[in-house]
Automatic annotation (TrEMBL), chain A:
This is ABC transporter ATP-binding protein. GO terms for cellular component: plasma membrane. Residues 1-38 are annotated as: Disordered. The lineage of its organism: Bacteria, Bacillati, Actinomycetota, Actinomycetes, Micromonosporales. Residues 44-291 form the ABC transporter domain. GO terms for molecular function: ATP binding; ATP hydrolysis activity; L-isoleucine transmembrane transporter activity; L-phenylalanine transmembrane transporter activity; L-valine transmembrane transporter activity. Gene3D superfamilies: P-loop containing nucleotide triphosphate hydrolases. The keyword Transmembrane helix does not apply. Residues 25-38 have a biased composition (Low complexity). Keywords: ATP-binding, Nucleotide-binding, Transport. GO terms for biological process: D-alanine transmembrane transport; L-alanine transport; L-isoleucine import across plasma membrane; L-valine import across plasma membrane. The keyword ATP-binding applies.
Automatic annotation (TrEMBL), chain B:
Its main location: membrane. GO terms for cellular component: plasma membrane. It comes from Actinoplanes nipponensis. It is found in: Cell membrane. The chain crosses the membrane at residues 20-41, 48-65, 77-103, 115-136, 163-182, 211-230, 250-274, 286-305. This is Branched-chain amino acid ABC transporter permease. It is a multi-pass membrane protein.
Length: 296, 316
């Protein structure tokens, strides 16, 4: 059953300014943010994480940390362990050894829905929406994570349940506007274009009200114009107060938007720094272009 | 084949079939809900129904009613019906949750293969029905005559009774409420999310364990209502009452498209009608054989069932 009608939220422009009902972290106003000094405002800490599948070492003693309010790039050639690292952070895999701390608390061994409710949201390399729900409903599922009404209240449709439904719907609609697909709100997700589906996935992730948003190759399959739009959207998300972790193997895209970058190769960290530092790092150049045999 | 009989009795056969089909449809919802979310055939659902069919009898027994009692006054009948419904719904709901907790959840935690679930399902089903069998010495238990079937209206030779109207209206109302709940509420949205993509649902903060419990509970509630209707219609219950009706309900779910709520309604009503037409056409002894042959023929044409599989449609 599709949504019968979509009411336009009263605050038409509010969506563009701040879609998230949460104050922005201090010191991360709009505009470009200079990387904070080390140890300051650490949001997520990956500490010496190793992950083995049988004999394969997918991640080998990887450490890095994200600071509040930055756009952080995790890059590397195909198969370097980027998505594995992501999966360890979002509770899909449990690290063989090492720790992952989010806002100072260990999240190793927590369930996926607990990590989401704790403030980490993600999108997938291959789009994974709820294909038979409308775009609006897809986002509302994410928004539901923060509702407090019990099963009983929902079954008997108590006033509180109604109120939460209404705010959830309004906020979901604002998020669709924020990512620029509010005109598709009533359409079933599988009927959306590829680019719209990717944007919908981002809106759905934002609906869980994350502190940290992880985007897994969000530009895959995009043409240059779409990539430019996406970069603008990522900046807009950061400016609204959400820290962004970006996985990407398109170097040019990452260089254009990130504050800091970690480079993985064969499950090991080979470089870390600002885009400019990483670009000139010989190990990174070798990993991406290959090393001539005589030079090795 | 007795074509003239079928044509002559078409009206009465239709109304009987609809009432029977309404019970099957309510029962079928439990199979369809669980399958839609877990891709699991919960064979123990027949015993969820069975315990419901005893629960209301026990409550009515508290009031000194058995099959030989006189029909009480209208007001007390309404009260007794409500109490019986509540008892059956509660017991069936608890049974469904219990089966999930004992027979399925431990296996799910250990990532057991689908066959293991099938075996524990059959095991749980046999355990419950045999326990009831032992406790009742495998005797039938009569139902107090709360509702004496009385014609409400007559069209030609079709006599529509108060009991038939009650069954059909109650079944349609329950299905309407369930459909609304799944399609309109937050919890329903969570159920559909898990049915369509369990991994993304978990990453969106949906608690999968709770959704699974909820789905079993909803199936149990519907089976409880079906059980009371069954008692009133048939007049007796027995330790194996769930078994054959369970197969019919499961068939109805597949016929309509398993995992599809409206499919269960359509499949149930259609199966009820087919059984009655087949009984008239080939004789009552061929009722099940004939109706199941027809079902096979329908599935040959529409292998995923009449309305297609899955809760809120197919997973991509």
């Amino acid at each position: 059953m599709s949504e019968p009608h979509i009411e336009t939220p009263a605050e038409a422009d509010a969506a563009n300014a701040r879609p998230f009902d949460r104050p922005a972290p201090e010191g991360t106003g709009t505009g470009a943010t200079a990387p904070a000094a080390p140890g300051e405002d650490v949001l997520l800490e990956v500490d010496n994480v190793t992950l083995r599948f049988g004999g394969v070492v997918a991640l080998n003693e990887v450490s890095f940390s994200l600071r509040k309010g930055e756009i952080f790039g995790l890059i590397g050639p195909n198969g370097a362990g980027k998505t594995t690292c992501f999966n360890a952070m979002t509770g899909v895999y449990r690290p063989t050894s090492g720790g992952i701390r989010f806002q100072g608390q260990s999240i190793v061994g927590k369930k996926k829905h607990e990590i989401t409710r704790g403030g980490i949201a993600r999108t997938f390399q291959n789009v994974r929406l709820f294909p038979e729900m409308t775009a609006l409903e897809n986002v509302m599922v994410g928004a539901d994570a923060h509702h407090k009404t019990s099963v009983i209240a929902a079954l008997f449709r108590l006033p509180r349940h109604h109120r939460e439904e209404r705010t959830g719907r309004d906020r979901s609609y604002q998020l669709l506007r924020f990512v620029g697909i509010e005109h598709r709100a009533g359409d079933v997700a599988r009927n959306l274009s590829y680019g719209e589906q990717r944007r919908l996935e981002i809106a759905r992730a934002l609906a869980t009200n994350p502190t940290l948003l992880c985007l897994d190759e969000p530009a895959a399959g995009f043409n240059p114009a779409e990539k430019a739009d996406l970069l603008a959207l990522i900046r807009k998300i950061r400016d609204s107060g959400v820290t962004v972790l970006l996985i990407e193997h398109d170097m040019r895209l990452v260089m254009g938007v990130t504050d800091r970058i970690v480079v993985l190769e064969f499950g090991k960290k080979i470089a870390e720094g600002t885009p400019a530092e990483v670009r000139d790092n010989p190990a990174v150049i070798a990993a991406y272009l290959g090393v001539p045999t005589d030079a090795a | 084949m007795n074509f003239s009989g079928l044509i002559q009795d078409f009206g009465p056969l239709t109304i009987t079939g609809l009432a029977q089909g309404a019970i099957i449809a309510l029962f079928a919802l439990g199979y369809t809900l669980v399958y839609g979310v877990l891709r699991l055939i919960n064979f123990a659902h027949s015993e969820v129904f069975l315990l419901g069919s005893y629960a209301c009898l026990i409550v009515w027994g508290f009031f000194g009613l058995d099959q030989n009692s006189a029909t009480p006054s209208t007001l007390s009948v309404i009260g007794l019906l409500l109490l019986g419904l509540v008892a059956a719904i509660v017991i069936s709901g608890i049974t469904a949750l219990g089966v999930e907790l004992v027979a399925y959840r431990p296996l799910r935690k250990r990532n057991a293969p689908p066959l293991a679930f099938l075996i524990t399902a059959i095991g749980a089903s046999l355990f419950i029905s045999e326990t009831v069998g032992v406790m009742t010495q495998r005797n039938i238990k009569g139902v107090p005559p709360l509702i004496q079937p009385r014609d409400v209206f007559v069209i030609g030779n079709m006599h529509v009774t108060n009991l038939q109207i009650l069954i059909i209206v109650l079944a349609l109302m329950s299905m309407f409420l369930l459909d609304r709940f799944i399609n309109r509420s937050r919890l329903g949205r969570g159920i559909r999310a898990v049915a369509q993509n369990p991994d993304s649902a978990a990453l969106m903060g949906v608690n999968k364990g709770r959704v699974i419990s909820l789905v079993f509970l909803l199936g149990g509630l519907m089976a409880g209502i079906a059980a009371v209707m069954y008692d009133l219609k048939i007049g007796v219950t027995r330790f194996d009452a769930g078994f054959l009706l369970g197969i019919e309900a499961f068939t109805a779910a597949v016929l309509g498209g398993i995992g599809n709520l409206r499919g269960a309604l359509l499949g149930g009503l259609l199966l009820g009608l087919l059984q009655n037409y087949a009984a008239s056409l080939f004789g009552t002894e061929w009722l099940h054989a004939a109706s199941f042959v027809l079902l096979v023929l329908i599935l040959l044409v529409r292998p995923t069932g009449l309305l297609g599989e899955s809760l809120g449609r197919a997973r991509a």
